[in-house]
Amino acid sequence: MTTMRLRPQGIGLILGLAITVGTSFGPVLQARAQGAAETLRVANPVAIVSLDPFGAKAADQPTLTVAQEVLEPLVMRQDGSIVPWLAESWENPDKLTWTFHLKSGVRFADGSPLTSADAKASLDRLIAEKGPLAGLWAAVDTIEAPDEKTLKIRTTQPVGTMLSNLTMLGIAPAAKIRDTAFFNAPYGTGPFKVAAFTAGQQVRLVRNDSYWGEKPKLAQIEYRYIPEVSGRITALENNEIDFTWGLPPDQVDQVRGSQGLKVESFPTYSNYYFWFNSSRKPFTDARVRQAMWHAVDFAQIQKDLFPGTATVAKGPIPQAVFGSSVQKPYAYDVAKAKQLLADAGYANGFETTMMWSSQCCTAVREFAETLVSYWAKIGVKVVPQELERATWLDRLLKLDWDSTLTDGNTLTGDADFTLARLYLSTAKRMGYANPKLDELLLAARAELDQGKRAELYAEAGRIIWDEAVGIFPLDMMVHAAYRTNVTGFKPTPNAMPRFDSVSKK
């Protein structure tokens, strides 16, 4: 009798092979069922167009969602704290030097050992590509690998964000790091490796059976892109997928009411924000910006548009982020808003524009239209501009706009990622410049004492909030929806779900 070893990726051919070799249907169906139980089918809300997390897509959440299962960092953030991962320990022999000691016995999925040369090559490329995360490493002077298990990073000034920045650096093999073809099916030291990838459509990961840590229970993860929310929900209800996330508020109750499905909602590092172009009148005057904030009842908007899916913000970054703080709320006060406008010389209001990306975020159009209605009540006519993302981004970076509504994610879980990256005068992101704010943000970035860093960010957040550099209305929650036979899912505040601890019954 012929014996076959059945592989999950070959299930589609098993029936034909079974008939050819005379194998009964029983084992075939059993293998097929087992393969289904070991494969998690995921519908991602945004297309995955690249698996290279070192260049232009270094801050792209779809890319990073997959990459985190494959490429591991030296340190990781868990439950708000930085913990060792590929590095077992580290020290600061002086304020400009960080020395990391790598774990022994860790190998890449191809069997080659992890060395400090791999960590060095990965950071070298991230910096050299000058992508969206390169700025986090502006103070790096030298990166050295004096032996196979030691990595030394020297900086031109103290860098208090070193560890949080490193949580975003997955380690790839030095021999492959500059091979563009490698990132069609990359592998690292992680629990999974890439078996197949079609840009914009699907990714298939398979278990790394030689993983150094706790082995994942899943044999495969299949990511597929389903652009329409209704399509993802239908696929979930029809047992065509097992897991999805990023559901808008008006769809959550539908899923909660479906038999065999579960919804888990959790706070994240993401928030909505509304920026003013402070280099353009009338937004050069802080009183105008403050008036716009007082004119809107964001608590009511949260109840109407985001019930159970957002909380009214208490500061310019979400409360789950290190360095966040609670600021004095802006009361909904139309009379005060009108007085502030009059004091600024706009007693009769003014006309302006507001842009947003049509691909932005949950209920963005409804949110924008509601804001327009509120501002009309104080004599401010806002012309809405819904743009394709590429056009919106181009205009945003050129400061070719009056105001904009969007969302953000403090991916590292550290205030520096958002506050210093966006609100330093040198960033030139919204036309606002404040030497005092610059001083605080740079001091916080350079401070190694994390308690002192938190105090500095609290003061920086107060300036951004009180000056109404933007309006910060809502901290967002993520809704993950999955079938009840999926177990072991652990929510992640960076809104990039991980599946290394997940299993299927």
Mind explaining what this structure looks like?
It is found in: Periplasm. It comes from Microvirga puerhi. With 505 residues, the protein is α+β, with helices and mostly antiparallel strands. 30% of the residues lie in helices and 25% in strands. The protein has four domains: 30 residues, no CATH class; 121 residues, Dipeptide-binding Protein, Domain 1 (Dipeptide-binding Protein, domain 1), CATH 3.90.76.10; 95 residues, Periplasmic binding protein-like II (D-Maltodextrin-Binding Protein, domain 2), CATH 3.40.190; 211 residues, Dipeptide-binding Protein, Domain 3 (Dipeptide-binding Protein, domain 3). β6 and β7 form a beta hairpin. α1 runs antiparallel to α2 and α13 packs antiparallel against α14. It is globular and about 70 Å long.
Radius of gyration: 25 Å
Mean pLDDT: 90
> Helix amount, in percent?
25-40%
CATH secondary-structure class of the largest domain:
Alpha Beta
Regions with pLDDT < 50 over 5+ consecutive residues?
1-34
Structural class based on helices, strands and sheet pairing: alpha+beta
Distance between the termini: 32 Å
Outline type: globular
CATH topology grouping of the largest domain: Dipeptide-binding Protein, domain 3
Q: Strand percentage, roughly?
A: 15-25%
From the 3D coordinates, which CATH architecture of the largest domain would you assign? Answer: Roll
The overall number of domains is 4
Spell out the CATH superfamily of the largest domain. Dipeptide-binding Protein, Domain 3
Per DSSP, the total helix count is 15
Major pleated sheet: 9 strands, mixed
Report the strand count.
Answer: 19
